[in-house]
Amino acid sequence: MENKNFTKVTLMFFRIISWFDVFASRYFFKTTQLNENEGMLMEQDCVFCDIISDKKPASIVYSDEKVIAFMVIRPINPGHLIMIPKTHASGLSELDEEMGAHMFKVALRIVNAIKKSGIECEGINLFLSDGEAAAQEIFHIHLHVVPRFFGDGFGVKYGPNNFLEPSREELDKIAATIRNSLEE
Question: Taking the chain, what is the end-to-end CA distance rounded to the nearest angstrom?
């Protein structure tokens, strides 16, 4: 019996150590460095920074001095791509407004190109997840451009408390809270 408890405790210990390794590598041990070739800030151990610096391959659709767009290796549908800023930004709070506007401007051009390309596309989703709770998995901000068509099988799952209709008073209160937090 003691041996089973020892084994359980040992396994729990290694799980905690493994979790800490993941947590620590994500939040404490990463360093940012300047890419000598282009003067861009890069994050060590960031797959998207590796694509920007040609350390990892990518099928590039678009590139300029600020952003790069490339095909997703496990697409939802053919034509699914990701656009990222060439300067590392983990989330939207690190992205300046000019870069955000540029990303959206380029996304509009890419959307129009996809629609003209002959790739099956009856609609387009633009997805950007900011933070773990929003399902962000790679902490270099990125905008998904996803061609959609009826019957493609992709969807968004909603919980039981989604789409409940709050009172106008509650909506006004939330609107005021956000409005008061806007930076000028």
Answer: 65
